[in-house]
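Many introductory courses stop at the sequence. We go one step further.
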Amino acid sequence: MNIDVSTERQVQLILEILVEFFEELVPLIIPAKGGGTQAVRVVLTSSKEDKNLLERELQNLEDEQSRRVRGFREVIDLISASQKPTVSHNSLNDFTFIYNMFVAPLPSNVDEFICSLRSVFPHIFDVTHLMKELEL
């Protein structure tokens, strides 16, 4: 069963109720594409052993995902710490995605985004932008 939610507070309330009153149910958080939570999926388990097995599998999947994200985040941190130039081609979409997935939620406007992006990637050279400047 899926329970649609519109706020993180609803998610917390659903999780509290499921844990407190329903031992045989396991909640699964379904993330929304833009961040946050889209729904809570509730899975019925037939025994305590099944519930424990499912929870262990979910924890293993979460740990694996965390290792992947941490691994790429370490690459970003190494690039940032090196203070070396990052050369790219037409990369605004790429940097927007990388920033949103591995650094922080996107700021509310472009100026804040550029300022924050420069704190992570201090020297970005976009070849497309440079070529436009040379075509004066």
